[in-house]
Amino acid sequence: MAENVSKTKKLFTVGGLVVLALGIILYFAKEPLGLNRKIYDLPVFLILIGLGFALKGFMSKAKSEDDLDLGSKSFGEFLTNNAILLAMLVLVVVICILQPRFMQIRVALDILTQSSTKLIMALGICFALLIAGTDLSAGRMVGLSAVISASMMQTATYANRFFPDLPQVSIWIPIAAAVLACMLFGALNGFLVAKYEMHPFIATLATQVIIYGACSLYFDMPPNNSQPIGGIRPDFAQIGQMRLFQGIYPGFPGISILIPISLVICVIIWFVLNKTVFGKNVYAIGGNREAAVVAGINVFRNIMFIFILASFLYGIAGVLEAARTAGATNNYGNGYETDAIAACVVGGVSMSGGIGKVGGIVMGVLIFTVIQYGLQFINVSPMWQQVIKGVIIAVAVAIDLTKYRRK
Question: E strands along 167-259, which residues?
Fold first, then answer.
């Protein structure tokens, strides 16, 4: 075992240091060699990747279940388990060859920004997946939250105000109202699933239709009459548009505030799932509900909290989307739930329940965003993008089912 651990540490440490050294060499050599327009920020990416691998090697435990076994059988399993990730890496290489401008820090930050609200949604929907369910109402909750918050956060001078006589309220009141509305529908989801043992697919499908109808009625209220909501107050828009460290060096676009917000939520959800009794109960219910009941777990209460917590995250995502785009319509969030479910599955959350990690969800969201952004970057037809996305989802679910049967 010690020999295997040593090989693992050496592989990551030495490999990381080699990549790091290559990045440093290219960083100082690209300008003298005239490679600025050929490799752009590739040296910076190599330095960051090298540091990551080297740190992983240094921090590897003395004994770990994740030690590398380079046998043919284990290597085949590694390829199967990471097929989507490897396919993404190949695609990124191809895109960089076809369009070197893809190798820019600005592009990477755009991808992370686009991933932020999607990640928050995926973290919410993962709770339903962990109990072998789903949540089809997630996207419509995002739209509801966006419409409610945006409708109350228009400037006093905007000509087509949703509420003409509404004073300039504190920014937290619309946010609280939007999130609370989503949580009420989340409680309805939880009640239908927990009380009547209704399958989450049917329960959330019904709620999805109700939410869209209610949101459309609200959006159609006079004097708005289904007009896109605009004229958003600058203090609200800043929540989704603020950039940190902008201009710390020439040309640096800054880091979107959405990125650290999503990272903080990731840490909180990781803590909830891994360090709390509720998190352990979620995995137990997803693994075997009957056994969870026998073990004394209050399934009704936990399922209620699962859907309420998920709807809280959808509400936050909707508020951030409204702030990021400085507007909203009743069609916001349409179809978002399918992308979030797909990202969770690609990230290793089992459709059979009881299996999934926050790190995998983060990776799944990034994989989907990179593929979508990259295909747009090289002008691939939107129709082909949908085909590729569908293939990825089918392959990911097939791999998930294959792993489940093995176990």
Answer: 243-244, 255-256
Is the omega angle on the peptide bond into residue 200 within 30 degrees of 0, that is, cis? no
* pTM for this predicted structure: 0.91
Q: Is 168 helix (H, G, I), strand (E, B) or coil?
A: coil
Write down all domains in the chain, each with its CATH number in brackets: 106-406 (1.10.3470)
**Partners of residue 60 on adjacent β-strands:** none
CA pair distance 87, 94, nearest whole angstrom = 11
Joined tokens for residue 102: 């893809």
Structural contact between residues 259 and 369, judged by C-beta atoms closer than 8 angstroms: no
**Cβ-based burial of 242 (10 A; exposed 0-12, middle 13-18, buried ≥19):** middle
Return the number of other C-beta atoms located less than 10 Å from residue 11's C-beta. Answer: 16
- What 3-state DSSP class applies to 367? helix
Q: Do the beta carbons of residue 270 and residue 126 sit within 8 Å?
A: no
pLDDT at 404: 61
- Collapse the DSSP code of 244 into the 3-class scheme (helix H, G, I; strand E, B; otherwise coil) and give the result: strand
Residue among 145, 153, 150 nearest 171 (CA): 153
Which of 240, 231, 238 is closest to 162 using CA atoms? 231
Half-sphere exposure of 387 (CA within 13 A, CB side): 5
357/370 Cα distance (integer angstroms): 20
What the block records as the tokens of 324 is 């990021």
- What is the C-alpha to C-alpha distance for residues 361 and 312, in angstroms, rounded to an integer? 18
Bridge partners, 328 (sequence order): 229
Tokens of 166: 């509404």
Residues 6 or more apart whose Cβ sits within 8 Å of residue 369? 111, 114, 115, 118
pLDDT averages per 10-residue partition of the chain, 407 residues: 58 88 92 84 91 82 54 64 77 89 92 94 96 95 97 93 93 96 97 94 97 97 94 94 86 91 97 96 93 93 97 97 95 92 89 90 91 90 87 78 64
